Amino acid sequence: MSRQPASEFQERLPVTVEPRPTTSRRHLAFLALGVVAGALGLGIVSGIRGRSVADTTLRQATAAAAILPVNVVAPQPGAPTQEIRLPGRTQAFTDTPIFARTSGYVKRWYFDIGAHVKQGQLLAEIESPEVDQQLQQARADLATAQANLRQAQITANRWSALLQSDAVSRQETDQALSALSAMKATAESNAANVRRLEQLQGFEKIYAPFDGVITARNVDIGVLVDAGANTPGRELFHMAAIQTLRVFVAVPEVYSRGTRPGTPATLTLDEFPGRSFGGMLARTANAIDLTSRTLLIEVDVDNPRGELLPGAYVFVHLKLPGQVASVTIPASTLLFRAEGLQVAVVRNDEAQLVPVTIGRDYGATVEVVSGLQAGDQVIVSPSDSLTSGTRVRIANAPAGPAR
């Protein structure tokens, strides 16, 4: 086998052409430009979306901040009320100051504070020499007038008898009769003056007007008492009748149906623990006070041994003819408005102002007898500017009503 020359073999091999470097670089440049453009577009889209989310979040936060956050409580149902316990203050059945009706100096006094006296007992004496002297002069004037009257009566009788025989003229007789009438008027005037001064002299002795106890003594021996018409009187003593005491109580309007004259009542006092005193509802005002929405009643309590003192703070227990359903809420939930007492409740995410009627006041809590239900959500410490329809959100989880 013959070999071909090497030159011929080389001529038959395929010839390889290398790519141009310029075309490869152009492709790389277009690829890099596309990557940059895509990244830029992705950044723009991401920025727009983030801005939209931020705006939405800001609007939601602003709307949430505009809703007032509130704390609420649930009214606690109370036991049906069969008896009410109301505060009151005892007063003496009769309480009066004692003044002087004549001027002078206190000569002596006989009873001090705390003394029990009977009606008509002498309390003090006033020395009034001016009145005594005026009375003596008035009695002397009366005696003179009575003497002149007797003389005028004799003269008139004599002239009347002489007129029957025409011994004197009618003119002279008429003058004698006129003088008699004048003397009668003068005598009556002097007698009235004597009676007036005798009464003033009688006022020099101060007597007890009723059975009671002396609660104040404002005089001492030698004190000047001026009973002039143009000067304020001086209170000598103060007396109180404590055999029976009055207790005035303001009863809420919702309980007024249970207050009828003759209804028994019971009184309790802190100074007498474990004891009670019986009383009777004597009378009512028969009208509801427009400011406090209460009915004023008077309870009379017998006090034969004087254990109860006037001015004492007491609690009056009144039985009710029926049961009154009620709930209890904190006192901090109350709103005092011109329309009356109200509370704010949450209904449909809005605050609603509801008028309520208060029963008993326990201090930190109060009893509500009308206007609320046990399932209501009552706003605690509502703002004074809160109005019905205000959007609110509950910030706490209210405790459910007691069962």
Global Rg: 53 Å
**Low-confidence stretches at least 5 residues in length (pLDDT < 50)?**
6-11
Beta-sheet strand percentage?
35-45%
Give the count of helical stretches: 4
What does this structure look like?
Helices cover 30% and strands 36% of the residues. It has helices at 6-12, 21-66, 129-164, 170-202; strands spanning 68-70, 72-73, 76-77, 81-99, 104-109, 116-117, 122-127, 205-207, 212-217, 224-225, 235-252, 264-268, 277-288, 294-302, 313-324, 327-330, 334-337, 340-347, 350-355, 357-361, 365-370, 378-379, 392-394. α3 (129-164) runs antiparallel to α4.
Any descriptors?
403 residues, Elongation Factor Tu (Ef-tu), domain 3, six-stranded antiparallel barrel, single chain, 36% strand, 30% helix, Helix Hairpins, elongated, alpha+beta, four-stranded antiparallel sheet, conserved putative lor/sdh protein from methanococcus maripaludis s2 fold
Write a short abstract of this structure:
With 403 residues, the protein is an alpha+beta fold. 30% of the residues lie in helices and 36% in strands.
Write the layout of secondary structure elements.
Blueprint: H1 6-12, H2 21-66, E1 68-70, E2 72-73, E3 76-77, E4 81-99, E5 104-109, E6 116-117, E7 122-127, H3 129-164, H4 170-202, E8 205-207, E9 212-217, E10 224-225, E11 235-252, E12 264-268, E13 277-288, E14 294-302, E15 313-324, E16 327-330, E17 334-337, E18 340-347, E19 350-355, E20 357-361, E21 365-370, E22 378-379, E23 392-394
Parallel strand pairs: 1-23
Antiparallel strand pairs: 2-22, 3-16, 4-11, 4-15, 5-7, 5-10, 6-9, 7-8, 9-11, 11-14, 12-13, 12-15, 13-14, 16-21, 17-18, 18-19, 20-21
